[in-house]
Amino acid sequence: MRALLGVDLPGFRLVEPDVWVSDAGDVLSLHFFALRPDLPASLDDGPSLRAALTRMTADAGGGLIEASVKSLGELPALRQILKLPLPGQPNGQVFIGSFTVPRAECSTVVKIQAPERGMTGMREAMVMAQVGPGAFFRAHPYAPEVTGGLPFHAADHVQYDAQFPDHPLTRVRGVLGALAEGVEVVPEFAALPPFTA
């Protein structure tokens, strides 16, 4: 089932069904899963959902940057941004943003992946110079006890996007914003029974 319309954003070219690529190498993709969603908590239980997602992302070696419930095409959706180490590389990260729209027995996900290219770590170094090392690394606000995976730090905050307009994290946030404004839900998908944890 195609559950969402309007995913094919300007600046992205179709390279295979439901997969688009930008000139920067960012990959936008649309997925449908005919399975009960495996979300760790209800969308109505924000604290439990965010804490569980933080632990799951850290266990996978990454770091959860943001998680919140937003409307996507008039349905509640889990909006996430996370970072993972670049596969097979000694340094660098890939930033992944997604909207997951769960229903009782299926879900649809639209995802944007933006890898760092060339010199990495510039955003982090410049923000650390601005705030100082003591204020740079922070306990995760969703689950302060989590210590594994990639660290939570100041440079990932949205307030620094304007300083780094070409950074992959900034691009991910921009794409998620465009999706939130432009995506429509297919009526047949919207009519399905809602997800409950």
How does this structure look, described?
The mean pLDDT is about 95. It is globular, with a radius of gyration of 17 Å. The chain contains five helices and nine strands; from the N terminus they run ββββαββββαααβα. About 30% of the residues are buried. It has a seven-stranded antiparallel beta sheet with strand order 2-3-4-8-7-6-5, with helices on both faces. A two-stranded antiparallel ribbon has the order 1-9. The chain has a single domain, classed as Protein Transport Mog1p, Chain A (3-Layer(aba) Sandwich). It has about 200 residues and is an alpha+beta fold.
Show the helix and strand layout.
Layout: E1 4-5, E2 12-16, E3 19-22, E4 27-33, H1 46-59, E5 63-72, E6 75-85, E7 93-102, E8 107-115, H2 122-131, H3 133-136, H4 168-182, E9 184-185, H5 187-190
Antiparallel strand pairs: 1-9, 2-3, 3-4, 4-8, 5-6, 6-7, 7-8
Outline the biggest β-sheet: 7 strands, antiparallel
Q: What are the segments in which pLDDT stays under 50 over at least 5 consecutive residues? A: none
| Helix share bin | 10-25%
Average pLDDT for all residues: 95
Strand percent estimate: 25-35%
The helix-strand sequence is EEEEHEEEEHHHEH
Tell me the overall shape: globular
- How many β-strand stretches? 9
The CATH topology comes to Protein Transport Mog1p, Chain A
Over the alpha carbons, how many angstroms does the gyration radius reach? 17 Å
For the largest sheet, list the strands in their spatial order: 2-3-4-8-7-6-5
- Going by CATH, the architecture would be 3-Layer(aba) Sandwich
Q: What class would the helix/strand composition place it in?
A: alpha+beta
Number of helices: 5
Kindly provide the name of the CATH class. Alpha Beta
Overall tally of domains: 1
Distance between the termini: 22 Å
